[in-house]
Amino acid sequence: MNLIILIKEFIADIKKQKLRAFLTTIAITWGSLAVVLLMAFGRGLDFRMSESLLNAGEYTITIYSGQTSKKYNGLPIGRPVRLVMSDRELVVQNPGVKLVSANFGKYIRLKYHDKIVRTYMEGVEPSFGIMRRMYPSPGGRFIDDKDIVERRRVLFLGSVIAKELLGNIDPIGQKVDVDGLPFTVIGIMPKKLQSSMSNGPDDRRAIIPNTTFQSIYGYHYIRQLLVMPLNPGKSKTIVKQIRSIFARKYNFAPDDENALSIWDMNEAMELNAKIFLGFNIFLTVVGSMTLVIAGVGVANIMHVVVKERTKEIGIKRAVGAKRFHIMFQFIFESLMISITGGTLGILLAKGIVSVIWKIPAQDEVAQFLLRPILSDSVVFVTFIILTMIGLLAGLKPAAQAARLDPVEALRYE
Which of 7, 47, 148, 246 has its CA at a distance of 20 to 30 angstroms from the CA of residue 113? Predict the structure, then answer.
């Protein structure tokens, strides 16, 4: 059928049912607005939660010392398994491993002039900054290989602890005492959103080279091995291989999960993805209920239109119009009402999202709740829902029109 004719007939029908069409379009607009905003807030919360998890360790595997919980090769339960620096080389040799950092840690005292603060400090390798997303602010740097080799007394600070200790002065190059020993500040990490942490957030962390840490404090056992696999999707395989390697070295059962405590960020990300998939589906269904109610209004209008145009339908059928053409005409009009209202709703939602993003998010709660994401997928899903609503709302009235007997339709007054 000619598209121009269909549009003209659609406009003529709307003019006859101005109030009803207006109210139905408003209902579709409101329903679309609800669906888009709910999905945008869900998508934004999902993104923020994922980012805050990755900020604690970008697809990393963390390996801690443990204690055996199974008898093995005649050895008793409860034997400690303590990791040392040489264990790092066993992990590095795995071809599926991309980065490794052997880390020490302890609570220390930082002093700058008469200002004293306590915080948690870690001795790490340069790769630690990449894996933990501890990127330096402009003008500073993270620990490098030369710092490790020369055991330099250099210090990298989180933004919060740096503010508490140094105030508003430029921290780079300042001398800070770490447990009474002078260190030079080489970099500051900007504040980041972090939902998972150990011994406090990275914003309050102090970082030095692990070789410097070991030479000062004399630690033999490391606190943890931080590992980044080449392929995050194969992290479970890497974990199994690492456990098997250390099982041979420390003589414990390969299936003894307590002998080494291993935390896989990739599993946490998979769980997070499943949770938010269900959450976003729930929000979509809730928002869609409003559209379903609006769809009833569309169906009501189409029933009225069919009734008013009964004689016209009879004439079209009498001159040879096929049932398909009659059905298509009314389904087209139903879709036009749905898509027109839906487009208005999406545009309105886009404006609201833009306004919300202009509201300052000064705390972590605001950063989670006030950062909706209106992605292409959100718009696409909304249009799919609108199309289904338009089709379903117009299908019964269209079928009713197509079944009309031409003779009876021509007699209708």
Answer: 148
List, for residues 327-341, the tens digit of each pLDDT value. Answer: 677 677 777 878 888
Give one DSSP letter per residue of 195-229, joined into a string. S--SSS-GGG-EEEEHHHHHHHH---B-SEEEEEE
DSSP state letters, 303-341: HHHHHHTHHHHHHHHHTT--HHHHHHHHHHHHHHHHHHH
Output the CA angle 171-177-183, nearest 5 degrees. Answer: 65
Task: Express each pLDDT in 165-214 by its tens digit.
Answer: 998 899 999 999 999 999 999 999 988 877 666 777 888 999 999 999 99
| Dihedral (CA of 50, 56, 60, 63) sign | negative
Q: Which residues contact 370 (CB under 8 A, 6 or more apart)?
A: 356, 357, 359, 361
Contact 128, 134 (CB under 8 A): yes
CA distances from 257 to 1, 59, 66, 375 (A): 69, 20, 9, 41
**Residue boundaries of the structural domains of the chain:** 3-54+270-411, 61-265
Which class for 93: exposed (0-12), middle (13-18), buried (19 or more C-beta within 10 A)? exposed
DSSP code string of 158-202: EHHHHHHHHTTS--TT-EEEETTEEEEEEEEEPP---S--SSS-G
Is the entire prediction scored with pTM above 0.85?
Answer: no
CA 68, distance to chain mean position in Å, is 37
Residue type, 57: G
3-state secondary structure of 399: helix
192 Rama class: left (phi>0) / alpha (psi -120 to 50) / beta: beta
Q: How far from 389 is each of 151, 174, 327, 330, 395, CA to CA, in Å?
A: 68, 65, 16, 14, 10
Q: What span, in angstroms and rounded, lies between the C-alpha atoms of 215 and 370?
A: 47
